[in-house]
Amino acid sequence: MSGGKLLSGKVAMVTGASSGIGAAAARLFAAEGAAVVLVGRRKDRLDGIVDTIRGAGGRAVAAAADVESDIEVERAVAIAVDTFGGLDAAFNNAGYATAGTPLHEIDDEVYERTLGTNLRGVWNCLRHQVPVMLASGSGGSIVNTSSVAGLKATGASAAYVAAKHAVIGLTRAAAQDYARQGVRVNALVVGNTRTEMMDKVLEASPALEETFLSHSMQHRMSAPAEVAEAAAWLCSDRSSFVTGTAMAVDGGATAL
Predict the structure, then answer these.
(1) Three-state SS for 256?
(2) Is residue 160 annotated as a catalytic residue, yes or no?
């Protein structure tokens, strides 16, 4: 990759990279000059995206892992260090959502998976990403995916709303902990996005589509690549004075 690109010379880790926003981010980060570690549970999907990135002249490696597993996340971070020599940026994007079920009808399995992926997953990533960035002496940038549901009830499940609120709190606490050591931590407040996960939610509850569209001033859902662009900027040096923020990428949903 030539110099002058947004993420030129950086090593970036992207979770939830097998589809949707994560896959779009992996491709964009590589196009912008980063060496990318793609993390997800579906290795076949990761391998396909890695092949596409390499075919376009980029650098990428797959690290199959479930972010709910501390050991698997630790291994994924080690792959970044062993393959590319370190870790400069991370987009902790893996998520799981349900909608249309009132709180008292959510079973324990759905609750545990929702909190495990969306909150424990970010916790696990931060615990292993931050030490590598601190050890480098040059800091780094971490972006965590929250949601409009991290600021208000949206029609998503109560478990998802709770988890995404917690992601913003975790982001702010981490930003304060490491700001003077050069590690920036931010969150994206993501609006409704056309992803595989969204398709599953709408398949289960078709009536929610109009509700979700009405949440946006633009009366549309975003494309995954639109969210990836915001993550790339926050992972880059161009956002050097931005930390502890929850940046809306929501088509105006939180302004309504």
Answers:
(1) coil
(2) yes
